[in-house]
Each structure stands twice: as structure tokens, then as C-alpha cells.
Design brief:
- The chain has no helices and four strands.
- The chain is mainly β.
- The chain has a two-stranded antiparallel sheet. A two-stranded antiparallel ribbon has the order 3-4.
- β1 (2-4) and β2 form a beta hairpin.
- It is elongated.
- It starts with a strand and ends with a strand.
Length: 41
């Protein structure tokens, strides 16, 4: 999973090995909070 921030940077999170399902991933990068829904099929 890769997300672009408002500062045009990207943040990657490996989902390798995660079971199938719906996840809400929250990350804080340099005081900027990112929340994304992720579906693993």
C-alpha cells in the first residue's frame, strides 16, 4: 500500500502476510496524520 501525502511524498506499508479482510491503517508522519481503508483479497 502506498499513499501520497499533501506534501507530495509517499509512505509505504507492507501488507505481505496480512489475512484477507478490511483494515483501517493509521500512520503519523512528521505530525501529518494519514488514515486509509485497505482491502486484502
Amino acid at each position: 500500500m502506498t499513499t501520497r501525502t499533501s506534501m507530495n511524498r509517499s509512505t509505504s506499508v507492507s501488507t505481505l502476510g496480512w489475512p484477507k479482510g478490511l483494515y483501517v491503517v493509521k500512520a503519523i508522519v512528521d505530525k501529518e496524520e494519514l488514515t486509509e481503508k485497505v482491502v486484502i483479497r
